[in-house]
Amino acid sequence: MPLNKDAIIHLEQNQAAITLSDKLITYFDNEYLSTNVIAVPKDHGVELESLERYQPARDRFRGTMTTESIEDFATYANSKSENTTYINAQDMNAKAFFNLGNHDHAGHGDDVASIRLKPTAAFRALTRINDSKLGQKEAAEFIEDWQANVMDITGDIGESITVKVAANALRNITVSATQTQEHGEHNFGRERSARESIQAQAKEARPNFVYFRCIPYAGLPERTFVFRVGILTASEPKVVLRIINLETHEEEMAQEFKEILTEKLDEKANVYVGSFSLGS
C-alpha cells in the first residue's frame, strides 16, 4: 500500500526526532553529564523536552535560598564547593551563585542564595520621622516611646536634660510675635517700617540635640545617631527632628556590611562588590 504525503512527512519527522535525541544523549554523555532528553515533532518541527520530572531524582541540584541573616547566608554559602558572591553594599543585599562556572565552562547560574538585611524596628522608627514636620504631641511621644534608646538630650547651652523635661518642653512650646516700628524724617520725605519677630518659646529647657543609639540592621554593630531639633514657627508649631550626617552613616553601614560578610565567607569564595545578572 503506497504511503500518502502526510504519512511520509510524519515518518520523516519521527526519524529526525530520533536522530536528534540520539545525538543529544551522546553529547551529554561525552561532554557533561547523563541527561535524559527526548525530541518530539511539533508543528512540523522538533521540540526538546526533558524527562527529569519523571525521574526519581533531579539531574542536577539547583534552587534559591533567601535570608535576612548574615550568619545563615554565610553558613549556607560555605557549604557549597563553588561560590561567587556579589555584594551590593549600597542596598544592603548580596547574592551568591553556586554553579556559575567560568568563561570556558559556563554554568547555568540557577543555584543561588540571596540576603537582604532587614532594618530593626528602632532604625525604621528614626528614619520614618527624620526630617518630617511633627506635631508637638507626636514629637514628645516619639522621645518617650523610644527612651530606652535615647542616650542623652542636650539643651540650648549644652546642658543634659531628661526625657521627661524634653517631652514636656516640646508639648508646651508657644509661638510669640513681637512688632517694632521705625520712623524717620529727612529733607525729602519720611520713612516708616514695621518688623515682626516670631519666636518659639518653651517653659522648660528646650531640647536641641537628641542622641539615639540602636542597631540599624540585624548583624551590624550599634551606632549613635544625633537628631537636631528644630521648631517651625507657624500658627501651630511643628517640630522637625533631622539626623545629622545621615549620608555618612549610610556609607559607614554599607562598608560594615561588606566587611562582615566578606570575613564570614570562606577563602575559596570569589567576592565582588556590585551586582550581577545572567545574560539571555
| pLDDT averaged over residues | 80
**How many strand elements?**
14
Beta-strand share of residues: 25-35%
In terms of structural class, how would the helical and strand content be classed?
A: alpha+beta
Largest sheet: 5 strands, mixed
Order of helices and strands: HEEEHEEEHEHEHEEEEEHE
Which percent bin holds the helix content?
25-40%
Strand order of the largest sheet: 3-6-5-4-14
Question: Spans with pLDDT under 50 lasting ≥5 residues?
Answer: 178-183, 186-190, 194-200
Multimeric status of the protein? single chain
Q: How far is it from the N-terminal to the C-terminal residue, by CA?
A: 50 Å
Globally, the shape reads elongated
Number of helical runs?
Answer: 6
Rg from alpha-carbon coordinates: 34 Å
Polypeptide structure, described:
The protein is an alpha+beta fold. It is 30% helix and 33% strand. Helix 4 (136-145) packs antiparallel against helix 5. A five-stranded mixed β-sheet has the order 3-6-5-4-14, covered by helices on one side. A five-stranded antiparallel β-sheet has the order 7-13-12-11-8. Residues 178-183, 186-190 and 194-200 have low confidence and may be disordered. The protein has helices spanning 5-31, 70-78, 121-129, 136-145, 163-171, 246-264, and strands at residues 37-42, 45-50, 63-67, 84-88, 93-97, 111-116, 133-134, 150-154, 174-186, 189-201, 209-214, 223-232, 238-243, 270-273. The protein is elongated and about 90 Å long.
